[in-house]
């Protein structure tokens, strides 16, 4: 049967070309995603930057701390503490030591990512004086590029805004924007020691620090101290978050489309299979022939798809970099490494397996036909097999159950893209499996308005779709996937963002909010100047990291140091137990997700190394990512913080009788030049929304773009296959007296009907998804609307319909060049 299979491939070029295209693109998509995921497991070693000229670096670290398993920006407790004084003394005994400190220091109007260092470490990072001299007094600084020697500048730090004189300018480097102080001034601003550069023998240094909480880094390991290392981790975290979502949704869609396309190609050949059965072919021989064809097509298309996937992976990597998701150095390099070979092999085997599985069910069904019934079976359309019924009903039940679980059992799952987005695919695939059953009712529904139309055109279109329901369903499914995923993904993104905005509006009760303006946060000087404005009360929660013990595991949590009197006045925390009024220096307010009860003592490790025992004064309900602990300002010392000592924002309330206009003018004048701005609550929501939406929107829309583009190709591919196989239908129309224009209009109308069926199925599946989302968001944020970008979705649906029409009209117009009598004898 292998010889027959090869001859069949040659004879039916159009049908098999469609399956090859679908399989090639599907394998390319799977390979590209696999290669990108593999690249994350085999990242290149990044060279050191700030300590490229240092023989070694002593850095505080915890060997059991994996940054990938913790929130972005959070250090281990050892890193938060920095280098202990005892370690400094031991390292100093081995020879000369240079002390490094890193802290927020921004020249007013300068780059928001400026950082302060002592001048003594500049030489190790490639800095050299281009003009002027080194700082000699506490009032002098050296700026890395772009300043003028002799200028007086205001430098913002976590505590103050102070005037300094620029006495030197260095060459610019590409990894940071630095401001250098004298060693004494740097120690005053930031007591915490970031790292040490020992100039003595490395072996002696290692021996001196053995058994302590520090490491001696050499070679490329020195890059761990660079700020770009943390930025790389953040970018890679975004990539790690996006790629599994994209891979799961895009991969599942590709596999489903490929399997459906291949099965459809086999079903198209039922007449040929019937003839083989009548001339004596056994069921086993028929199955072997079909599977041999699938193996040949699957092998060739999968091999080509893997090669295309390699190029596609590099294009996707560049796209992720352009979107700001991945670091600039992220790429996929062709090699014989396992990170490349395994994804390629997996994609190849997936393609071959999908081809075989896509053909297996149809081949089994064809092989079961008795010879005497072969010709009759070839003419009858049986759209649903028992296996498809089983999968469709099971998928619909699973989709409904998953929607119910998300809506009522685990609403916070909607805020975790890796978990939530794949669930959106289940109802859509379920409706795709059940499409042949729904084609009949939907065809009658959509054609009902044309029941009174003159002529037989509407009747022919309706009956053609009803007679060949499997073909109609097969061509409608790509439209269903395209529009359904667009509605579900984009609707979920916009609805979740709208719900977050509503939650932020409900949480903030302050009159005004102080937010960063060209700076990474609000410093204490800005807060003090705001507080000095008559009639104004301000609270500026400074972000810290609180470490608690969960059994024998150290857990990190976000904490805010606040003024207790202003907390309840500016924020509406949904308190479950206790009262915010009980927040004192010896108590703490925690989120319910922390797992502590009212009045329970909590041992908290502060980031400066101190340990305090606090009692739970109140427990409140918080969303994932907003489960913050609140402390009093007793713990607001800069040394107690693992972050930069800045407030993310400050909340401002006006005392009774205060003139809002005068107060607003006074506040804006007070913070002028301090990297802060005064906004209303509505302006805050818009600002926070824009920042919070960006990454979420990029993630979800990236998935939508990749999937929709693939589905667009599948629409054209499937319609081309279906229309090219209908030359006999075209011939019958022509011999019945239809003009070429009427024939083209018939196929165009039928393709529009198919697209309409796909859109209606997409609306049904998406309605199930969005209903569950609405229930979940209502439980999390209160009453919230479901927002669907109607314009974008309508555009996608219109393009899908246009492609469906083109996929039907183009082969029809080409076939019309052949005489009608010749078409009746044509097989392709």
Description:
With 828 residues, this protein is an alpha+beta fold. The protein has 4 domains: 1-47 and 226-380, no CATH class; 57-225, no CATH class; 386-507 and 688-828, no CATH class; 508-687, no CATH class. Helix content is 54%, strand content 15%. The protein is built from 24 helices and 22 strands. Strands 3-4-9-6-8-7 form a 6-stranded mixed beta barrel. Strands 2-10-1-11 form a 4-stranded antiparallel sheet. A hairpin with a 2-residue loop joins strand 14 (542-550) and strand 15 (553-562).
What Rg is obtained from the alpha carbons, in whole angstroms? 33 Å
Counted by DSSP, the helix tally is: 24
Distance between the termini: 22 Å
Biggest sheet record = 6 strands, mixed, barrel
Helix content: 40-55%
Number of strand elements: 22
Summed up:
This protein is of the alpha+beta class.
Topology, element by element:
Blueprint: H1 2-11, H2 13-41, E1 57-60, H3 77-81, H4 85-92, E2 97-100, E3 103-107, E4 114-118, E5 129-132, E6 140-144, E7 152-157, E8 161-170, E9 177-181, H5 183-189, E10 195-198, H6 202-209, E11 214-217, H7 227-267, H8 270-278, H9 283-322, H10 338-367, H11 374-379, H12 386-409, H13 417-433, H14 435-447, H15 457-467, H16 469-507, E12 512-516, H17 524-531, E13 536-539, E14 542-550, E15 553-562, H18 564-570, E16 575-578, E17 587-591, E18 601-605, E19 611-620, E20 629-632, E21 650-654, H19 660-670, E22 676-680, H20 681-724, H21 727-735, H22 740-781, H23 790-815, H24 820-825
Parallel strand pairs: 4-9, 6-8, 15-20, 17-19
Antiparallel strand pairs: 1-10, 1-11, 2-10, 3-4, 3-7, 5-8, 6-9, 7-8, 12-21, 12-22, 13-21, 14-15, 16-19, 18-19
Keywords: Cell membrane, Membrane, Transmembrane, Transmembrane helix
Transmembrane segments: 20-41, 242-267, 294-316, 336-362, 389-408, 420-439, 703-722, 743-766, 786-810
InterPro entries: ABC3_permease_C, Macrolide_Exporter_MacB
